[in-house]
Amino acid sequence: MAPSGVTHELSAKRRQFAGEPGFKGLVSNGRTFAIALFASLGGLLYGYNQGMFSSILTMSSFQREIEGYAAETGTKQAITTAILELGAWVGTLLNGWLADAIGRRQTTILAVFVFCIGVIVQANTHAVSYVLGGRFVTGLGVGSLSMIVPLYNAELAPPEIRGSLVAVQQLAITFGIMVSFWIGYGCNFIGGTGETQSKAAWLVPVCIQLAPAIILGIGMAVFMPQSPRHLMNTGHEEECLKVLAWLRNKSTDDIVVRIEYLEVKAMHMFEKETSAAKYPQYQDPSRKSNLMILIND
User: What is the pLDDT of residues 20-32, one digit of tens each?
Assistant: First the structure.
């Protein structure tokens, strides 16, 4: 371990090359900030789902479709509401392994695909089983997004604005909840609020969330960069350097880009050496060994 005086000196030297924190840092890192805002559509979907169902659950047209299963406050309403969070919990558990196995960007695309399946099942509701199954599958998707988006944003961000960009996810969740309430309120009047209420009153709030999900999936597949950290972990060091330079809008020879690249590489080497010391039996590159390290660590 380095002496404390040397450590302090190195930290002070590193701060000389750090950019501006706060709002100035977000402006000067406009490209990274824009990517983080786009990726946080995943948080908006999570928040929207949490708020949307409370609006449609009491609609007359929706209750007719599920034969009044959750018409009154009680256990049935609790089950139909909370099953989304159960799916989110399962989706989050799977996410750590998936993020390392196929990458942050591909995991986001997979989560969007699963999410869309859940929404389509809910949109075809003819019994409460459709609602329960659809919301569980939707939960798998938004649970995965709730973990992978902050991870992706953190790994793209420079240290001085990393906290701000990760917080964008939480802002997106609360914004999604607010939007869901207003959409639910407006759609509640389609066809009236009683027996004449149209199916569109609950179908529109359910189906409209497909739009941002599809936009997020296409954007991640076509336009968004891979995480520099994942590129380093998979041995693509040169591509990691190029992505960092592109994100910072600088050349690959820039001193700040080089420092950040070396920090990513040092962390990867540290984790690799620590893993080899703790779990020598799981050091082959198979996905099974990576999963066993994840379970035991």
Answer: 666 777 777 788 8
CA angle 9–265–228, rounded 5-degree value: 120
Please report the sign of the dihedral spanned by the C-alpha atoms of residue 263, residue 217, residue 39, residue 215: positive
Lowest mean pLDDT among 7-11, 24-28, 65-69: 7-11
In the structure encoding, which two tokens stand for residue 99, read together?
A: 């993020």
Query: How far is 195 from 60, CA to CA, in rounded Å?
Result: 6
Nearest residue to 131 via CA among 40, 68, 212, 198: 68
- Structural domains of the chain sorted by starting position, each given as residue range(s) with its CATH number in brackets: 22-224 (1.20.1250.20), 232-296 (no CATH)
d(CA 58, CA 186): 14
pLDDT digits (tens, 9 = 90+) for 200-244: 999 999 999 999 999 999 999 998 999 999 999 989 999 999 999
Q: Do 172 and 41 meet the contact criterion of CB atoms below 8 Å apart?
A: yes
CA 160 to chain centre: 21
In the chain, DSSP finds a helix count (H) and a strand count (E) of: 15, 0
pLDDT at 133: 94
**Burial status of residue 15 (CB atoms within 10 A of its CB: 0-12, 13-18, 19 or more):** exposed
Give 23's contacts (C-beta < 8 A, 6+ positions apart). none
